[in-house]
Design goal:
3 copies of one chain form a homotrimer. Chain A is α+β, with helices and mostly antiparallel strands and 138 residues long. Chain A has one domain: Jelly Rolls, CATH 2.60.120. Chain A has 3 helices and 8 strands, in the order ββαββααββββ. In chain A, β5 and β6 form a beta hairpin. Chains in contact: A-B, A-C, B-C.
């Protein structure tokens, strides 16, 4: 059995989802792993990783609007040094999570037909984000 | 060290929790792994995996009702082609997550006494759901 | 490639976050793994694991207050045998999750500069909590 690690950099255009399925799949394929496990970790506290529908931009907009309702901007927060979108961004990151682990079967990640892997940016401004990846298998 | 992968199929009766702890435990035992790591991935965007109390159906009902309050049906969504329960189902899937990773110690998953692994169906209709599993260890 | 497992015990002072980054990092270092993967699993249904800002106690207070708004105490629940904070604690545990998986690169967990690993206690009373860890690598 062997393993491999890497770090991928992504530029986000501000709040919203960036699909990274292909980037992860390309790295898995490059490593020639047929059976194994890939783990992703987002190195930030105001961005996160999630899996959702890969085919409908309406889903992405609805998801973003819902996150705003669940963790709204406003006068709720003690921590606001970095602006009104900062603390809600931390909350959305905790709610959606920063880790994903996906089995690799038959040389491909075992994702469902409609599943895409997304880097979710929760700050208003564009950011440079880093995702660490670990791959194990043979 | 060795690894094993499989796919388990479950039929859900519509919205609610289906406990799958025994199915996963049986597969781990079958593989004869004493020390290792088991990872589960649900291949859907309107169902998910979660760990909660295994002994109280009141907890399951309260959890379901709470998910309905946090991600309600209603006129909030642009994405409603597949019915009013579709977008809330995507949101509940993101909120609860589709991955779990559990250490195996002494030949058993290191679950707490009261922890059960559940497949959460978020659509109203019965569905056939698939969970991919990866096991690593020796 | 080799692996190691352990169980860490923590005493929580009741509701709030306990940072455990150093405990986990110390165990990873002790095992001399340079490249690999560490997985944490919290064995409870009213406590959880999460990653958030490691430098601001205002963030921790805001996070706690937000969890109380999203999963409030009150007359919503059928399950209240163990007190009004019991069912909200189960909900917060599901919302934040009980698993984390973090790549190890260059002998250290690939955490971002501002990321800390926290054990989140969701009950009012102090508890003794257990976290199972699995480490894999070389």
């Amino acid at each position: 059995m062997r393993q491999s690690v890497t770090r991928l950099q992504f530029r986000t255009p501000g709040r919203g989802l960036t699909e990274i399925t292909r980037d992860v799949a390309a790295w898995v394929a490059e490593n020639g792993i047929r059976t194994g496990l890939v783990t992703l970790h987002c190195l930030h506290t105001s961005a996160s990783l999630l899996i959702t529908e890969n085919a409908s931009s309406a889903v992405w907009r609805d998801l973003e609007a819902w996150l705003d309702r669940v963790a709204p901007e406003g006068g709720y927060y003690a921590h606001d040094d970095e602006g009104p979108d900062d603390m809600p961004a931390h909350l959305k990151s905790v709610l959606t999570g920063v880790n994903l682990s996906i089995p690799v079967i038959g040389g491909r990640m075992a994702l469902g037909t409609w599943q895409g892997i997304f880097l979710a940016e929760h700050r208003r401004a564009p950011h440079r984000r880093e995702v660490a990846l670990h791959l194990l298998g043979e």
